[in-house]
Prior knowledge:
Blueprint: H1 20-40, H2 42-56, H3 77-93, E1 101-105, E2 116-118, H4 154-158, E3 178-179, E4 188-190, H5 192-210, H6 213-227, E5 229-242, E6 254-263, E7 269-271, E8 283-290, H7 292-297, H8 306-315, H9 323-327, E9 340-350, H10 351-356, E10 370-378, E11 381-387, E12 397-401, H11 414-417, H12 419-439, E13 443-446, E14 476-479, H13 485-503, H14 522-562, E15 572-576, H15 585-599, H16 610-620, H17 625-628, H18 632-644, H19 669-674, H20 702-705
Antiparallel strand pairs: 1-15, 2-3, 2-4, 5-6, 5-12, 7-8, 8-9, 9-10, 10-11, 13-14
Helix pairs in contact: 2-3, 3-6, 12-13, 15-16
Amino acid sequence: xxxxxxxxxxxxxxxxxxxxxxxxxxxxxxxxxxxxxxxxxxxxxxxxxxxxxxxxxxxxxxxxxxxxxxxxxxxxxxxxxxxxxxxxxxxxxxxxxxxxxxxxxxxxxxxxxxxxxxxxxxxxxxxxxxxxxxxxxxxxxxxxxxxxxxxxxxxxxxxxxxxxxxxxxxxxxxxxxxxxxxxxxxxxxxxxxxxxxxxxxxxxxxxxxxxxxxxxxxxxxxxxxxxxxxxxxxxxxxxxxxxxxxxxxxxxxxxxxxxxxxxxxxxxxxxxxxxxxxxxxxxxxxxxxxxxxxxxxxxxxxxxxxxxxxxxxxxxxxxxxxxxxxxxxxxxxxxxxxxxxxxxxxxxxxxxxxxxxxxxxxxxxxxxxxxxxxxxxxxxxxxxxxxxxxxxxxxxxxxxxxxxxxxxxxxxxxxxxxxxxxxxxxxxxxxxxxxxxxxxxxxxxxxxxxxxxxxxxxxxxxxxxxxxxxxxxxxxxxxxxxxxxxxxxxxxxxxxxxxxxxxxxxxxxxxxxxxxxxxxxxxxxxxxxxxxxxxxxxxxxxxxxxxxxxxxxxxxxxxxxxxxxxxxxxxxxxxxxxxxxxxxxxxxxxxxxxxxxxxxxxxxxxxxxxxxxxxxxxxxxxxxxxxxxxxxxxxxxxxxxxxxxxxxxxxxxxxxxxxxxxxxxxxxxxxxxxxxxxxxxxxxxxxxxxxxxxxxxxxxxxxxxxxxxxxxxxxxxx
Length: 718
């Protein structure tokens, strides 16, 4: 990994010797905001508890059963729906086997030219020493006949010079670089902005992989499906241990500071009650439940006050359990949890108030009325207090809703959408079970006046009852109730259909058998699955807008601020690619292959980007294009090797006609030299000495006659 500085260039830290009395108001301020968010969130917590019970198949305390109701069965259709939605979301997000992000140059990249090229067959014109050409002297001088265009200045002309960005050093020795795309097959085209974008993308992907971002994204996707909101936090700097053994077997690990991300449960996040999304939030409070060892580990992280942490540990564990924590457990404990409650605050603070708390305000922020701070509080101690180190300042949390609720920070989950239908299904199924049990057994009626007193009235096969004198007639009667469970099951099926409509996730999408009608054919199934993907499409689009793109932009800003590698920097933008994976890979592969056949026509080949097409085909097949596709330079070397392996005929014998294979751009060698993009036939390339050309009448050279030794075209660096 490159040398990276993750510390703020102007850190602002609260000294350990700050008087506690100066911090009391700050602690009160943070705990007050935490309580405000906690009270506002109560309704959301009740919604989440009900969703969790439906997922687990548990009845809440508000469900009361009558004495006639014997069955307590719970049909966990909610769990089936949630897991189906979670599976579809993760399949879409990781269809390309990597984090669904990409870095690309902006439409008009600033500070670096979009493309440059040079033609090795057309070297730059050489001039005698001291002679000035128009290119060398674009400003003109008296008597040279050159004039500047209207509106041009010396500054504007200087800005026209090539800006190669990360390729400046590598291409500085190449003469004849010209801005723009190459127009001849032999021209090599470079894209400086794209080079920086791909290097930045590779760097971010490496950082995400090292932080286990895929695992955290899956956890966020599950809570998003169940509770309606998935939350990711990052990037934040941590010290990571990399294993390393010396030659003698001594273990000396390498400790590197790397950016990390993690999943934050919606139960632990307390946002600004007045915000409907992260962009509107003025503050966020995260509630940590830390053990003693976890609290000690904070002392190794930057800007944490070691003395305050030690004093906090000396006071002992202080943790306030919430009412919903017992409902989330499968068992109940009455003992005191050995944990610490730590509040992490990210949000705005008045600059004047920050000064009162002893924060040293940088010069560039003194004229700003509000600043963003990060503060950790535990046991009435300030564990950390710094100005938000990110530039631009941002709260490092990203919340994605399953279904957008425009009037609340938290979204609406799939379990909540089918809460009513789940209740109906449970009720109809309990009725059907109770009726089946009742109708499947006889009710015994006994006339005790005809039986000997004191007998056991229990009924079993072979049972003998003793009669006594009395009124004649039957002493034991059996009554059977009618079975109406079929009617109850019809109502159950109706409620299940309503759950399909409420969630937008049909039963056949998660493996229901017995589909009839349109769903019995392959075309019908494809049509039904296409219609079913509509609801998931909205969810994936929410992931792109509310989580993937802002998280990628944060990593981009993180590297622009703290990474010193100039080759990864440029005028770039982050794009989320989750929604692109909704199209079935098989369909994308077929369309790409059809398009490849169309553009293989020599007349259309110059207008197609074959390198991009091949990479997209690899993506649609679930392959990593960086592993299975050659770069243009590698493709050029491979083409030269294959050309050298062609058998050479003995001297004096004519070479056989080579099969006209299209090159990387869909053109045959004859087409390349013809320059017109069309098929001009088989044979040697026309020269100015031939009849169809006006020329000097010189004889064609041996190189021109021997088409097998023509120079292969240089590939393009996309």
